[in-house]
TrEMBL record:
SMART domains: REC (SM00448). Residues 9-126 form the Response regulatory domain. GO terms for molecular function: phosphorelay response regulator activity; protein-glutamate methylesterase activity; protein-glutamine glutaminase activity. This is Protein-glutamate methylesterase/protein-glutamine glutaminase. Residues 161-348 form the CheB-type methylesterase domain. The gene is cheB. It is found in: Cytoplasm.
Length: 359
C-alpha cells in the first residue's frame, strides 16, 4: 500500500466470538486492510456500519436475531456495499450462500477450520484476495421489487438441434453464479449441450447445479466422468477437485474429469475446458467468458477463436469483476464483447445460423 492510499475498511459480522477473532487476525495481516470493527449480530452490525462507514462487510450466513439473507436484502436496498459471505460447508449453507449471491453478495468463503492450523495460511490468502476484489466492486441500490426474469428464448423448432455436433462452453469466476443463471435461464430447452466451469469450492458446485436445474428449462447436473453431452443438458465442473474437459467417444461428445494440477491457480480451470473444446470441437463451439477475477480462460478463449469457434466476452459495464473477460479482450480472443443480457441470444443465434447453412 502506498503512503497516500487508504486502507480497505472492513466490518466483520459473525455470531461466533472465535470466528470474529480469527477473521480479524487474518485480515489484519494485510497492510492494505483495516478491520474497523466486529459485530455479533445484524442489529449490532447496523449500528457499526453507521459509525465506521466500512468499505467491505464479511457476513455470516447463519445469524441470530435476524438471518443473514434478510439483513443482506435490507442492506442492498438501503445502503449497498460489497459483502463477502462466510458460509458453512453444509448442504443448507450452500443453498443459503447461493441465495445470498442472488440477493447481491459479491462473493463467499467457507468458514475457516480453526483446528487445522497448516491450512490457515491458504485460507488467509483466499480471504484477503476476495476482500480486495470486493472493495473494487461498485454496487447499485436494489429495489424491493424483484427484477423481471430474463426472457427465455423460443425453442428452435423440432429437430433443429438433433445432434451434439455443436456445443456451448461457459466459464466464470467472481460474480459468475448469477451471470450464469441469467444466461441459462434465457436458453431454450433444446439448446446444444453446455459445459460450465465456474470457480467454486467443493460442496457448492452440486448445490449450484441443482439450483440451476430447478430454475431453468435445461437439465443441469454436476458433471460426472463419462457423461454423454446431450442437447438441452448442462454439465457443471465439480468445485475445487476436478478439471472438466470436453472429449470425443466416437461420434459423441463426453465429459472427462481429471485431478491434474491446478492451472492459473484453479481446479477446475476455465482454460482447461476451453482448450479441450478447441482441440476436440473447434469451429463447432460457441464459448462465452463471463465475469471473474484474474485471467483464467482468456488464453483458452483465444485458442477457441483460432480454432474457428465463435467466442464471446462479457462487457465491462455488466461484469461484477472485469478480470477474465477483460484479459480476453486484450488478447483479441473475443469475436463479440456483449452485455450479459445479450449473451444467451448470441449463443443460440450462432447455432441457428450454422444449422441453416448446413454446417
Amino acid at each position: 500500500m502506498s503512503a497516500t492510499s487508504k486502507p480497505i475498511r472492513v466490518l466483520v459480522v459473525d455470531d461466533s466470538a472465535l470466528i470474529r477473532k480469527l477473521l480479524t487476525e487474518i485480515l489484519s495481516q494485510a497492510p492494505d486492510i483495516e478491520v474497523v470493527a466486529a459485530a455479533a449480530d445484524p442489529f449490532d452490525a447496523r449500528t457499526k456500519i453507521k459509525q465506521h462507514e466500512p468499505d467491505v462487510l464479511t457476513l455470516d450466513v447463519e445469524m441470530p436475531k435476524m438471518d443473514g439473507i434478510t439483513f443482506l436484502r435490507n442492506l442492498m436496498r438501503l445502503r449497498p456495499m460489497p459483502v463477502v459471505m462466510v458460509s458453512s460447508l453444509t448442504e443448507e449453507g450452500a443453498d443459503v450462500t447461493l441465495e445470498a449471491l442472488e440477493v447481491g453478495a459479491v462473493d463467499f468463503v467457507t468458514k475457516p477450520k480453526v483446528d487445522v492450523s497448516h491450512a490457515l495460511q491458504d485460507y488467509a490468502d483466499v480471504l484477503i484476495d476476495k476482500v480486495r476484489t470486493a472493495a473494487r466492486v461498485r454496487l447499485q441500490a436494489r429495489s424491493a421489487t424483484p427484477a423481471p426474469a430474463p426472457q427465455r428464448l423460443a425453442s428452435a423448432g423440432s429437430g433443429r438441434f438433433r445432434t451434439t455436433d455443436r456445443v456451448i462452453v461457459l466459464g466464470a469466476s467472481t460474480g459468475g453464479t448469477e451471470a450464469l443463471r441469467e444466461v441459462l435461464v434465457a436458453l431454450p430447452p433444446d439448446a446444444p449441450g453446455i459445459l460450465i466451469t465456474q470457480h467454486i469450492p467443493a460442496g457448492f458446485s452440486r448445490a449450484f447445479a441443482e439450483r440451476m436445474d430447478r430454475n431453468t428449462a435445461l437439465s443441469v447436473k454436476e458433471a460426472e466422468d463419462g457423461d454423454i453431452v446431450m442437447p438441452g443438458h448442462a454439465y457443471v465442473a465439480p468445485g475445487s477437485d476436478y478439471h472438466l474437459r470436453l472429449a470425443r467417444d466416437g461420434a459423441r461428445y463426453i465429459c472427462r474429469l481429471d485431478q491434474s494440477g491446478p492451472v492459473n491457480r484453479h481446479r477446475p480451470s476455465v482454460d482447461v475446458l476451453f482448450n479441450s473444446a478447441a482441440e476436440q470441437a473447434g469451429a463447432n463451439v460457441v464459448a462465452a467468458l463471463l465475469t471473474g477475477m484474474g485471467d483464467d480462460g482468456a488464453r483458452g478463449l483465444r485458442a477457441l477463436r483460432d480454432a474457428g469457434a465463435h467466442t464471446i466476452a462479457q462487457n465491462e459495464n455488466t461484469s461484477l469483476v472485469w478480470g477474465m473477460p477483460g484479459e480476453a479482450v486484450k488478447l483479441d480472443a473475443a469475436v463479440q464483447v456483449l452485455p450479459l443480457g445479450g449473451i444467451a441470444a448470441s449463443l443460440i443465434r450462432d447455432h441457428r445460423n450454422a444449422a441453416a447453412s448446413g454446417q
